[in-house]
Design brief:
Layout (H helix, E strand, L loop, with lengths): L2 H20 L14 E5 H5 L20 H4 L4 E2 L9 E2 L28 E5 L3 E9 L4 E12 L2 E13 L11 E15 L5 E14 L5 E2 L20 E2 L4 E19 L2 E18 L22 H6 L4 E20 L2 E16 L6 E17 L6 E9 L4 E8 L3 E10 L3 H4 E3 L4 E3 L5 E10 L1 E3 L2 E13 L2 E3 L5 E3 L4 E14 L2 E12 L10 E13 L3 E12 L6 E3 L4 E3 L9 E12 L2 E8 L22 E10 L2
Antiparallel strand pairs: 1-4, 2-3, 5-6, 5-35, 6-7, 7-8, 8-9, 9-12, 10-11, 12-13, 13-14, 14-15, 15-16, 16-17, 17-18, 18-19, 19-22, 20-21, 22-24, 23-24, 24-27, 25-26, 27-28, 28-29, 29-30, 30-33, 31-32, 33-34, 34-35
Length: about 625
């Protein structure tokens, strides 16, 4: 069935549901709803903060269906939802164990450690559907129900597709990204409350077409100018036949048992299997007029040497991980505490070339955590420490209150496996990198003054041995310390149903040739909420996003790394979205026009030197929760 047929079927079903809801007798009272459906997170159980949450039903910001949009567009993508992603600002990696790398597509996967474990009085089903005029589809279907009063099973399926904006698409909806994500979770608690077990199966299958950016029809070495972006379809992609796949299966089990009041033992098991593919069927053919291919390799003119270069480029990596974490936790003299020992067992193999193999590696880490609640129960402070086999470690302390959050983190983290070992016809390295070391200080507060609310924040990082990819997409490590400072100020003004909000960030660093970020990042929201015919709640407004011009990193799909470029600046351009969120009873839906200002002040904008941002696009979305 085509996407259009699916869309109209869901739309008709949705409208029928609204009509059906309108003919219910006013005296009818639904017993089950959002308040009888609740969930808990693993972190709350682990830290003995048993907090229950209800599903979100707010109208404010409902149109922000994508994780990047919800963050305030604080991630750099390649112009479309489903493409590779990196943080806009420096974010320290707090995982001190050895990691694989290839993180750019995991942004769209479920996180098993943040799975929602439900407790429902009745079967709960939630359907969330978004469709765009540009060929994007987003579908999230959740179903949860209790098998027994203390045993629940939940299924959550997410479907994401998007269509090409450029690259000579033959149809309006020629596929660019094809993604499936599935998470199945279950939780059980014994009758006496002493034993708890949480289990999750997490699957991810993300398959993007790698375009390598946009290029003019005449010469692949040239850049498309912003003034020419009126019709993206007039241009070709720099890679004409390349694709990737990020395929993951993961099992995650958490269990704990209370031996006595205030003392528990716990165990966490993780099994992960990943397969990462990359194929470029025109590795030799896609060259510029000067004979340089996409990966920077000069094509030889000598026929004999030219024949030695393969026509295609392929990469297949297989990674397995088994991790066991054993610990004790409890309460002692007002402090909640936790001690643990973590053992990791992993390997990496490749089907390419000489069959690169990283044989099974062992890693052991030990850690401790302590938390103290102040007498008013509104403020708390905690500290944690973890150290690994190679002296990689994390030290973190944080103070949390309704008015002030402040913290300090010191990290010594190892390089990713694929930062140190990589083998292909285009890039090949095998090196040992030092641990990246950073000190990070941050603070934020909230100040209420009449109709105004101020939210200032500040972040400072000092980094040694920073790992990055240079202008040739080769891994490097800095030899000088790097200082990074970011200050933010959020201002909200509310008057009756009117909201005016602005969030600005000012950022800078001591080594601008190594770390690139916009000096000014600004988001503005204007919204007004009202009720029509006493039943239809409406929240309408506009959002304006602005990033000052900067040399945004380019992306290398073979290594899945963002790398430095000095050719062309990106953004320096405002993007305006207008939206209308609506709600009848528990059903929510929205209409949104993204980048409505295309053509003013320019025909478009770039998120990197060769990746244009989303063109003017219409979105429609609906959310329908069911409780029986």
């Amino acid at each position: 069935m085509s996407i259009k047929k699916i869309f109209f079927t869901l739309l008709l079903s949705f409208l029928f549901g609204l009509c059906h809801a309108q003919i219910l007798d006013d005296s009818t009272k639904q017993v089950y709803g959002l308040k009888t459906t609740r969930y808990i997170l693993e972190d709350d159980i682990l830290n003995n903060r048993k907090t229950y949450y209800n599903p979100d039903s707010t109208l404010d910001g409902f149109h922000l269906f994508d994780r990047n949009l919800k963050s305030g567009w604080l991630y750099q993508d390649l112009g479309l939802i489903g493409t590779a992603v990196k943080p806009l600002f420096f974010q320290p990696n707090e995982e001190v164990s050895k990691q694989l790398g290839f993180t750019t597509y995991g942004f769209y996967a479920f996180d098993a450690r943040k799975s929602k474990y439900y407790n429902t009085k009745s079967p709960y089903t939630n359907m969330y559907y978004v469709q765009s005029g540009g060929g994007m589809l987003y579908l999230d279907f959740t179903h949860s129900q209790n098998i027994k009063p203390r045993w629940n099973i939940t299924f959550d399926v997410r479907r994401l597709t998007s269509a090409k904006q450029y690259g000579a698409p033959q149809t309006r909806e020629e596929r660019l990204v094809d993604s499936w994500a599935l998470i199945t979770s279950s939780n059980y608690e014994s009758k006496d409350g002493k034993y708890t077990i949480l289990g999750t199966y997490n699957h991810f299958n993300h398959a993007p077409v790698e375009q390598g950016g946009i290029k003019p029809l005449d010469d692949g070495a040239k850049f498309v100018e912003t003034t020419d972006l009126g019709n993206y379809k007039n241009f070709l992609s720099r890679l004409s036949n390349a694709s990737s796949r990020d395929w993951r299966n993961e099992f995650h089990i958490y269990q704990q048992y209370q031996l006595s009041n205030g003392f528990q033992v716990y165990h966490i098991l993780d099994y992960q299997r990943r397969i990462d593919y990359y194929h470029d069927n025109r590795f030799k053919a896609d060259t510029t007029a000067e004979g340089i291919n996409y990966y920077g390799i000069q094509t030889p003119k000598d026929t004999a040497l030219l024949n030695l270069i393969p026509d295609s480029l392929s990469l297949a990596l297989r990674y397995r991980l088994i991790e066991n974490k054993f610990g004790i936790k409890g309460i002692y003299r007002g402090f909640a505490y936790r001690l643990h020992l973590r053992h990791r067992f992993y390997n990496l193999t490749s089907d390419f070339g000489d069959d690169f193999r990283l044989r099974f590696q062992n890693e052991v880490l030990a850690g401790a955590w302590a938390n103290y609640y102040f007498p008013d129960s509104l403020k708390r402070a905690y500290a944690e420490f973890e150290i690994g086999t190679n002296l990689n470690y994390k030290l973190k302390a944080e103070y949390i209150s309704p008015w002030l959050n402040a913290g300090f983190t010191q990290l010594s983290t190892p390089a990713y496996i694929l930062d140190e070992h990589f083998m292909s016809d285009a890039y090949n390295w095998n090196s040992s990198l030092k641990n990246q070391f950073s000190n990070n200080i941050y603070a934020s507060t909230t100040i209420q003054s009449g109709r105004f609310r101020f939210l200032p924040e500040a972040h400072y990082s000092l980094i040694d041995n920073y790992i990055y990819y240079d202008t040739k997409a080769q891994v490097q490590q800095s030899s000088v310390p790097i200082s990074i400072f970011r200050a933010g100020l959020g201002i909200e003004y509310r008057w009756k149903k009117f909201l005016l909000a602005n969030q600005v960030y000012i950022a800078g660093n001591s080594e601008k040739d190594i770390i690139r970020m916009p000096a000014i990042t600004n988001n503005t929201t204007i919204a007004y909420e009202f009720t029509y015919a006493k039943r239809l709640h409406i929240n309408a407004g506009a959002e304006i996003y602005y990033r000052s011009a900067y040399y945004a990193d380019n992306y290398m799909p073979l290594t899945r790394q963002f790398y430095l470029q000095n050719d062309k600046k990106a953004w320096g351009y405002p993007v305006v979205d207008v939206f209308t969120n609506m709600k009848i009873s528990k059903v929510r839906f929205f209409l949104k026009f993204a980048h409505i200002n295309q053509g003013f002040p320019a025909s478009g904008y770039f998120v990197s030197s060769v990746y244009p941002g989303l063109r003017r696009t219409f979105f429609l979305g609906a959310n329908w929760p069911l409780f029986d």
